[in-house]
Write a structure and sequence with these properties.
ATP-binding; about 350 residues; about 5% strand; nucleotide-binding; 17 helices
Length: about 350
């Protein structure tokens, strides 16, 4: 089982219905049969705790759909009284998952495990993807958009909104070690069968690479392996590719007609500014001429990069330097712009 597929709120309601104390010991005890992790030793010191206020706050801050994995990560990062125990628990959990031949974790990672951040100004795209994923037929999605427009981040937000296990699959990790004919096909089939059995959604970035992967030396291509799975309503796949590479799908009609295609446009500059102001609230107190100057600079110097990626990249760079007291926005704006240009000249 995956902790990321377990809803924290549902576990708390289960404890409430049985008049059991609301604490982490009781919550994890409900999962002992699935995880095979026995809570003993120091855990027993906390079995009478009343943590209802803590968990209510987590649900209030992160929403009713927060999964147990993210709740544990939050308690771990906030250095709660459970931090050491949670750390040991997660080590045992990962070890147990590996022993259980976690093929999904071997070739990728669960997007629910990423740091939770709000995806802004993509509400319409989120609605369309959610509709497609809940369809009975043709429930596969292909995102088309330039690099840096936020394709992977959008899919991460879908995983959280739907409390859905979506695994980012690294095709190169499947190919590595596949020296002989048939090895890639075997590993790919194993991955797809596991996703089908567990009803886990797969996400392939650079999805165009699947079309010809594996068909060297007379082997079967990844696309041909995928086709029968894409017809199964219990199997769901999300792909992402660039506008240029999307043309490859027009050559394989049988593959492309199993997808809903959704074009993801670059975010307008004003919406990107709003994202920055919400993510970095310190900028609300900045002189607006300075704030706007940064975007003028990004537009003029980094013509081949897109919003919101280039703006998020710049402000992450700036605030990292500010924390180290290397510069200040009020006095060193030109220094910051020059240093950022120097760091990114190769892709400017």
């Amino acid at each position: 089982m995956f902790l990321s597929s377990v809803n924290l709120n549902e576990l708390i309601q289960q404890l409430n219905s049985n008049n059991r104390p609301i604490n982490l010991f009781e919550i994890l005890s409900l999962l002992e049969a699935q995880t095979n992790i026995v809570l003993d030793g120091e855990w027993c010191l906390f079995k009478e705790n009343n943590d209802k206020a803590i968990f209510n706050q987590i649900i209030q801050d992160h929403g009713p759909n927060i999964n147990l994995q993210n709740a544990l990560n939050y308690l771990l990062e906030s250095e709660s009284v459970y931090s050491n125990l949670i750390s040991d628990y997660l080590v045992k959990y990962r070890g147990s998952s590996n022993r259980g031949n976690n093929i999904l974790g071997q070739y990728g990672y669960n997007l629910l495990s990423l740091k939770e951040e709000t995806c802004l100004h993509r509400e319409q795209e989120q609605e369309l993807i959610k509709i497609c994923l809940t369809r009975n037929y043709k429930n596969n999605v292909m995102l088309i958009g330039s690099s840096g427009v936020g394709k992977t981040f959008l899919i991460s937000s879908i995983a959280r909104l739907m409390n859905l296990d979506i695994y980012y699959v690294d095709i190169s990790s499947i190919l590595s070690g596949s020296k002989y004919r048939g090895e890639f096909e075997k590993k790919f089939h194993t991955l797809l069968n596991e996703a089908l059995k567990s009803k886990t959604t797969l996400f392939f970035d650079e999805a165009h690479t699947i079309l010809n992967t594996g068909n060297s030396d007379g082997g079967i291509s990844g696309a041909d392996i995928l086709k029968p799975y894409l017809m199964n309503s219990d199997f769901r796949m999300i792909g992402a590719t660039t506008i240029d590479e999307a043309e490859a799908f027009t050559k394989d009609k049988a593959f492309s007609r199993r997808f809903n295609f959704l074009k993801l446009e670059e975010l307008p500059i004003e919406k990107t500014k709003d994202i920055i102001k919400r993510k970095y609230t310190q900028t609300l107190n900045w002189d607006q001429k300075t704030f706007n100057k940064i975007f003028t600079y990004l537009d003029s110097v980094f013509l081949n990069r897109n919003y919101p990626d280039k703006a998020l990249d710049f402000f992450d760079f700036y605030f990292s330097g500010e924390r180290l007291s290397f510069f200040n926005i009020n006095n060193d704006i030109e220094k910051v712009l020059n240093l950022f240009t120097k760091m990114n000249t190769i892709i400017a």
